[in-house]
Amino acid sequence: LDQVNSVSPTIAASIIQELQDQRSNLKMIASENYSSLATQLAMGNLLTDKYAEGYPNHRFYAGCDNVDAIESEAAQLAQQLFGADYAYVQPHSGADANLVAFLAILSAKAQKPVLAELGQEDPSKLSREDWNKVREVVHNQRLLSLDYYSGGHLTHGYRHNISSHLFDVYTYSVDPNSGLIDLDQLRQQLHEVKPLILLAGYSAYPRKLNFARMREMADEVGAVLMVDMAHFAGLVAGKVFTGEFDPVPHAHVVTSTTHKTLRGPRGGLVLCKEEFAEWVNKGCPAMLGGPLPHVMAAKAIAFREACRPEFQTYAHKIVENSQALAEACVEEGLNVLTGGTDNHLLLIDVAKTFGLTGRQAESVLRECNITLNRNSLPFDANGPWYTSGLRIGTPATTTLGMGPEEMREIASIIKLVLGNVTAAKTASGKKSLTKYMLDEQILAEARQRVQNLLARHQLYPELNLDLVQ
Ligand code: PLP
């Protein structure tokens, strides 16, 4: 950090400030975690200086021997960790991993047959006219995915995302009464839509999914089953989701991030059956630029950590904690969607119980040093900006070593705060969607109780904050 400080004291200060911030706030954002210092150091070094377009032993640049070793190790560990036929570790993020997967599936299933008809395997050798024939077929494929308000991700066909330009998108929703994905209803929709891809996976759904059943259903209509396990990859690696709930044996293609429950560096990953490997491997040049060797090195470290038995214990504790938190929230009178959770997150309706928007609840809890995010709920009347809900996750607090007792204390603090906050009035006398009022004493009590929890579970105790004067 002294080196950083000598160039930019403001950036050095921000790094230290961020550590202080993360040490003094309870991190309950379901998509965040704390990666190990080994992972962070593998990422922050000279590997960032190397270009390595292509894939191991097949590069468009000279001098890639070390990057070859790094990428091969990361891919081999990912394959071993998840029991996958093939692993591709270049995607820079989860969004990129999904694009690589989409393009691979479109290439293998939509483009290839047209090229065969045209008698030309290499698209770059087609005339403009023939290439437009290919494009017309490729761009008319259907994607059936979980809708955004039911917990699907932006990259699953949301109108403001490029995925909605790539596909003719159809969505499925949770059942309005149970809040659950009803596989019988989905099967019916699948038979009506007959998509090229059935996409499963979520950012905000608290239950596990039966991927064996989804694969059977996809096979009935000849669809490709793609699973985006970005959120729950750590639960798959840690053997919490096994058998029919493990996507890897059942899906044709699985995508993921590496930084959420998996606790690695910020990045993406694609796993697939042999049939798609050739296409997935062409992520660069299909849509990725040069790979990030430093991040692939950090992925290799994180995958190795996740192969250890301790990671399985960690993954089971994440769920034990989210279930303890959900139970305690229910006991405190909070409205927990679907009544609980099977994974690392729970959703809470703050509009029904407290008359607040998700935005107000998020802000007031942050003021009390609990960091979490507001989230749209199924069929949310408050829209995606203000929202009616909170998404609360336990991966980070579990990394800190917290357990069910701490979860009960957190539920009690959340109730203390939300039960005492009131929406402020706007100048015209309407209920504000953003502003709120909370008694100073309640604020002080909540902050003190959060600090008591954090004092017993310090983040990176080995890091010295006094490096920069
Ligand atoms: N897929 C899912 C299900 C996600 O929840 C997310 C991120 O929140 C992504 C993809 C995108 O990941 P990234 O932010 O790394 O692009």
TrEMBL record:
It catalyses: (6R)-5,10-methylene-5,6,7,8-tetrahydrofolate + glycine + H2O = (6S)-5,6,7,8-tetrahydrofolate + L-serine. One of its GO terms (molecular function) is methyltransferase activity. It holds the Pfam family SHMT. Its cofactor is pyridoxal 5'-phosphate. The modification N6-(pyridoxal phosphate)lysine is found at residue 260. Gene3D superfamilies: Aspartate Aminotransferase, domain 1, Type I PLP-dependent aspartate aminotransferase-like (Major domain). Residues 7-109, 140-414 form the Serine hydroxymethyltransferase-like domain. PROSITE patterns: SHMT. The keyword Amino-acid biosynthesis applies. Pathway: Amino-acid biosynthesis; glycine biosynthesis; glycine from L-serine: step 1/1; One-carbon metabolism; tetrahydrofolate interconversion. One of its GO terms (biological process) is tetrahydrofolate interconversion. The record marks 259 as: Plays an important role in substrate specificity. It is found in: Cytoplasm. One of its GO terms (cellular component) is cytosol. Its EC number is 2.1.2.1. Belongs to the SHMT family. Homodimer. This is Serine hydroxymethyltransferase. The gene is glyA_1.
